[in-house]
Amino acid sequence: MTTSNELRLLPWTGPDGKPCFLSTDDRGGYMSRLADNIESVQLGTATELLDQAVDMLAADTAPDDMWLLAKNLTGALRDTLRVATSRGHRLDSRSTDHRLR
Question: What pTM value is reported for the model?
Answer without folding.
Answer: 0.66
